[in-house]
Amino acid sequence: MTTAVTTTGGVVAPSRVTLLDVLRGVAILGTLATNVWIFATPGSEARFLLDAAGVSAGVPLAGAQPVAAAVEGVFRFLANGKFLALLTILFGVGLAIQHRAALARGSGWPGRYGWRALLLFVEGTLHFVLVFAFDVLMGYAVTALLVAWLLARTERVRRVAMYLAGGLHLALMVLLTLALVGAPAGNARGGDGALAEAERLFAVQGWPAQVGFRLANLLALRAEPILAAGLLVFLFLLGVRLFRAGAFGDDDRGRAWRRRLLWLGLGVGLPLNVATTLAGPDWFLLDRYVCAPLVALGYLGLVGVVLDRRRAGGPRGERGGPGRVSAGLTAVGRSALSCYVLQNVLCVVVCYGWGLGLAWAWRDAAPWWVLGLWAAVCGVLVLAAHWWGTRFGRGPLEALGRVLLRRLAR
Which of 116, 172, 272, 282 could pair covalently with 180 via S-S, beta carbons 3.0-4.6 A apart? Predict the structure, then answer.
């Protein structure tokens, strides 16, 4: 969405920006490209607690074929941390849009946004407990409250908060990485007994046992949004700044911003990210929480540049219409919350023991079946989002949230 200004200086209602919907769709399917490996790894969420760097970055299994290991490594590298950062930036953009829409209505800010954040936190808590431990919604809800308050402050206050949060996050990641590099080598997986128990929990035991595991390990499983709190604030505020700078606009300024982001992310961030990945698991924090967000800016710019060229590529300079890929991504982006939850539900049913149990049954077929699972779930999401959107407009969870918000804010 964007907001226009009338000739008399008034603000009019916002309208949708296709680029933002496409980017949200890319980010949702991209986060699945990271999470699908957690679902498909025997032991899944419990295994992650024993070897976070190995499960996330993708340490090849002993005896893995070179081609399979290379394909898996490249796929994981392209996804790890990048799409989560992109989604976080876009959440900040959405917050800026809501702030501007509130001004257009003449409403106070943050007004009823506290209810919206509370609803998001409740949704995230239910998702965490019932579906998947590595939920992003709870962290987004808490960060959104802080950033919503900052949007009511001056630009100088926001700038100081943004760079302070980013600086503290960078310092923390550097210090922790130095500690990991200097620490003596140890058994990251906590022994064969702990590994076997983790695998049994998600391959044999039922859904109630997995819910109990999440509740019993609440703090450990919520470590990422706590550890990356500074990064969340920084990326939210970066999204606000990019939106207000016109980076998503369909004009020369917007196109210039997207080319700049493409060069910065892929020209500078990508080589740095390759270096930290090749440096080994001890560099995991810098790899995922410092370099990957920089590459995410390149992804943002790349998607924007591709859409810009498509729009400019019509016959005799006429604007080209949306292709099937961009239309599918737009459908997913417009029902991002519903698609985010649905993709995790589908993967849980396919991978965990109380469902089809393929994480254990097909453990020797990785990475090929995992890549197939990702592609299949993405296809289901695109088709379902398109079908639902053409009939009902908003996604089901988005529509439910809107109803609940109206009742809460009375």
Answer: 282
Q: Is 116 exposed, middle or buried (0-12, 13-18, 19+ CB in 10 A)?
A: buried
Give the pLDDT band (50/70/90) at residue 2.
very low
Confidence of residue 17 (pLDDT cuts 50, 70, 90): confident
Say if residues 47 and 195 touch (Cβ distance below 8 Å). Answer: yes
Smallest CA-to-CA distance from 18 within 241, 328, 382, 315 is with 328
Q: What is the pTM of this model?
A: 0.91
For residue 103, give every residue at least 6 positions away whose Cβ sits within 8 Å of its Cβ, in sequence order, or none. 11, 109
CB contact at 8 A, 398 and 335: yes
Annotate 330-351 with DSSP letters as a single string. Answer: HHHHHTHHHHHHHHHHHHHHHH
Calpha distance 291→289 (Å, rounded) = 6
User: How many angstroms separate the Cα of 127 from the Cα of each of 25, 357, 390?
Assistant: 20, 20, 26
Contact residues for 227 (Cβ-Cβ < 8 A; gap 6+): 172, 289
The length of the chain, given as a count of residues: 410
Residue 58: how many CB atoms within 10 A of its CB?
23
Q: Which two tokens stand for residue 324?
A: 């099937």
Distance CA 82, CA 295 (A): 6
Per DSSP, what are the bridge partners of residue 2?
15
Question: Is there a contact between 335 and 388 (Cβ–Cβ < 8 Å)?
Answer: yes
Share of the chain above pLDDT 90, in %: 71
Q: How many helices (H) and strands (E) are present in the chain, helices listed first?
A: 22, 0
Q: How far is CA 252 from CA 161, 255, 370, in A?
A: 30, 5, 41
For residue 1, what pLDDT is reported? 45
Alpha carbons within 13 angstroms on the beta-carbon side of residue 294 total: 21
Q: What pLDDT, on a 0 to 100 scale, did the predictor assign at position 285?
A: 94
pLDDT tens-digit series, residues 197-251: 888 999 888 999 999 999 999 999 999 999 999 999 999 999 999 999 999 999 9
For residues 237 and 92, the answer to whether their CB atoms sit within 8 Å is yes
Q: Residue 362 in contact with residue 369, Cβ under 8 Å? A: yes
